[in-house]
Amino acid sequence: MGYAAHLALADADLSAAAFKLFHKMCGIQNRKDHGLVIVESQTKFAEQVGMSQSSVSRALRQLSDQGFIYPDGRNWRLRADFVFNGNGAAQGQAIQNIPEGTPDPYADAKKAGGLTVIDGGNGEQADDRA
Known about the structure:
Elements: H1 3-11, H2 16-28, E1 36-37, H3 42-49, H4 53-65, E2 69-72, E3 75-78, H5 88-96, H6 107-111
Helix pairs in contact: 2-4, 3-4
C-alpha cells in the first residue's frame, strides 16, 4: 500500500470495525485472483474475520460506499489501485476492471490538488534573497 493509499485510509470516515475488516480482507485476499475476497456466506465470512455478522455487514457497506472495495458477484474485491498483491501488468489490468461508478477513495486528495510546491527550502528567509 502506497503513501497516498495510507492517507486515504487514514482520512476516510470509517468505523473501527470497517477499518479492522479492511485489513483482515487484505490479509485473506485470494493470491491467484489478485484482490478477490471470497465470501462463501456472510455468516461464515464473519466467523473467518472474527466479527459479528451485523458488524461485517455495516463495515462492508462503509468500505464499499467509500470505494475501498467493490462487489464481484457475491464476493468482494479490493480496489487494485489502492492495495494489490501481484505484478504491475496484472495490477494495470485489474485497475481497468474497476467498475464504472465505483467511488474513488482518493477523491479528497485529488480535490485538494495533491502536493503543493512552496518556493524556497534552502534555509534562507524570503526577504534575504538577492
